[in-house]
Write a structure and sequence with these properties.
heterodimer, A: 288 residues, mainly alpha, B: 299 residues, 13 helices, globular
């Protein structure tokens, strides 16, 4: 009697656990679909013809996929040029962010000097500045300095937006490298520069990747500064080109989804490639 | 070795012999950049806010911009819409984020799901605005088609005063949910395993384990998520700019969009800066809580 009870209890708890496991997986899959479907729907529409786009009910898989929309985007608009511009702007923004934030992060990690706490706090405080408030002055400064409609203005502003977080990330990273490594080299008579080059640089691949992916994805996707500070296709970044697909005279969804898909590909590729670094950049500093 | 001198005469400033080895020099490029592109502009924005302006020239000093902004019904109703937008999207993202992060904790292969969940956060605000405008668009959009088959008499989602704001909130939630999931998930990993085991040995149910042990342990991370996402919503410009233009009838006319319109449609930079200054004050108040909390926790 007791044996039977225990047995039935065990079975029911096992089925219960299995049911919970299924429910858990189902929830995760459901949220995955919610995350993916909008992106999938955009990509799949980009290879459809006009008639299939307006077909009812809509087709989840393209019946006759083709690249006409991509062709019309690349030949009929300045989008190809915008794409190239963004590659240049993103590259130099990442370069600027790294070359400015790594020294500051290293110094903050290895030296004590008066005002250091204040400086680091000042950097942290920039996150409370909504980007819309500095947009007007950034525009007027760019006009006054003759930097309106140049890559340089965008790179400087994007870099400045990314530097505070990058310095904090770099400082946290250098804090994790044991001082003893450097001290041994100093004892052997190395100077600071040689230590930086031979000991710190080879260890820094991860932080460079983290800062690059975060600054890179952000600059690639920036719209408001880009929209405000450029006025010709030769200097417009990709997001402005994409924005202009929202024409006054109705939207052509085929070319728009094609352009959106093209603008997504480099971001998603970079993200999948450097996912771990991206996540570590996102989470460090927010959890204790 | 010569000692560099900054200026001649009695008040010459003699720099230290090895001045180029001063550690603070590592900070100089970062500070110059921020001075040029962030701190300088902040000062100028405050200056503009307190002056009458005509394009980029400033006129009389005064509070007329603030008076104009605060006496405008549009500002007040926009503020209400903005708060609803920020609070509702943040609440949904944090609640769903807590659920999903807890589920991820006990999954064998969290990496695959993590990658998928993160994608909407990679997508830029413009891209998500366009993608969702497409999904909501009558006759062609997936959501609009489903919606139409459920409610045959309904007009388009973004064109209807009743549904426009909710539709935009769903888009924003889609974009920010990854942030909530990832931060909460990472925080859950830091909860000591023996704490969880002790609770299980004491017979705590899964629900009790979460509400009594795990969530209280990570409350500072949850607070960070709440504050960051609230500000993200409060400062939103792009989604209404792309999806609705603020309409219909002001239903999605967020404060951030009003600043943008004052500045780059009417070119009234003074008024735009005054409204943006009010936004800045809200941001400072929120961030002060955030920094205070982080500071207390790290001690």
């Amino acid at each position: 009697m007791t044996v039977a009870l225990v047995k039935s209890g065990r079975i029911s708890s096992r089925t219960r656990r299995r049911a919970l496991g299924v429910a858990r997986l189902a929830t995760l899959v459901l949220v995955s679909l919610f995350s993916l479907i909008p992106i999938y729907w955009t990509a799949v529409t980009s290879v459809k013809g006009v008639r299939e786009i307006f077909q009812f009910p809509p087709s989840l898989f393209p019946s006759n996929p083709g690249l006409e929309n991509f062709q019309s985007v690349l030949t009929g608009t300045g989008f190809g040029l915008n794409f190239r511009n963004s590659l240049i702007i993103t590259f130099f923004t990442v370069l600027l962010t790294l070359s400015v934030s790594l020294p500051a992060g290293y110094v903050a990690s290895r030296f004590n000097f008066r005002g250091k706490r204040g400086l680091m706090f000042l950097l942290l405080a920039t996150i409370m500045i909504p980007s819309i408030i500095v947009l007007v002055p950034q525009y007027s400064l760019a006009v006054q300095f003759g930097l309106y409609n140049t890559f340089a203005a965008l790179v400087l502003i994007f870099g400045a937006a990314q530097v505070p977080v990058a310095v904090w990330l770099a400082r946290g990273f250098f804090d994790s490298i044991p001082l003893e490594l450097e001290e041994a080299a100093f004892l052997d008579g190395c100077g600071r520069m040689r230590v930086l080059w031979h000991i710190i640089r080879p260890l820094s691949g991860n932080i460079i990747a983290t800062i690059s992916i975060i600054a890179g994805i952000w600059s690639w996707g920036e719209l408001l500064v880009s929209l405000t500070l450029t006025n010709s296709d030769a200097h417009r970044p990709i997001m402005v080109g994409l924005f202009f697909f929202l024409g006054e005279a109705g939207i052509e969804w085929g070319p728009l989804t094609a352009a959106a898909t093209m603008s997504l590909i480099p971001m998603i590729a970079a993200f999948v490639f450097l996912r771990r670094q991206f996540v570590s950049g996102m989470t460090s500093g927010t959890i204790k | 070795m010569t000692v560099p001198v900054l200026s001649g005469g009695r008040f010459a400033i003699r720099l230290r012999r090895n001045w180029w080895k001063l550690p603070i020099l590592g900070f100089v490029p970062a500070l110059l950049l921020l001075l040029l592109a962030t701190f300088g502009p902040i000062v100028q924005a405050l200056n503009l806010a307190f002056h009458k302006t005509k394009y980029l020239t400033t006129g009389a000093f005064g509070l007329s911009n603030f008076a104009s902004v605060l006496n405008d019904e549009q500002t007040i109703s926009g503020l209400g819409v903005t708060v609803i937008f920020a609070v509702v999207s943040t609440s949904i993202a944090v609640i769903v984020g807590l659920l999903i992060a807890s589920l991820l904790r006990s999954t064998k292969h969290p990496g695959v799901f993590e990658t998928i969940f993160l994608l909407p956060w990679i997508v830029s605000q413009l891209q998500s605005g366009l993608i969702w405008k497409f999904l909501y668009s009558p006759n062609v959009g997936l959501f609009a088609v489903v919606w139409k088959s459920l409610f045959p008499n309904a007009v388009g989602l973004l064109g209807d005063t009743r549904y426009a704001l909710s539709s935009m909130i769903l888009t924003n939630t889609w974009q920010i949910l990854p942030f909530a999931i990832i931060i909460i998930n990472a925080a859950l990993m830091t909860v000591p395993a023996d704490l969880v085991e002790a609770a299980q040995v004491d017979g705590a149910s899964a629900l009790q384990l979460h509400t009594r042990i795990l969530f209280p342990q990570i409350r500072s991370s949850i607070l960070v998520v709440v504050i960051m996402l609230s500000l993200h919503g409060f400062n939103m410009v792009q989604l209404p700019l792309i999806m609705t233009g603020g309409g219909p009838a002001g239903a999605t006319d967020l404060i951030g969009l009003q600043v943008y319109r004052d500045a780059f449609v009417s070119f009234n930079f003074g008024r735009a800066s005054a409204l943006a200054t009010l936004m800045l004050i809200v941001n400072i108040a929120f961030t002060a809580i955030y920094i205070r909390f982080l500071g207390k926790d790290s001690r």
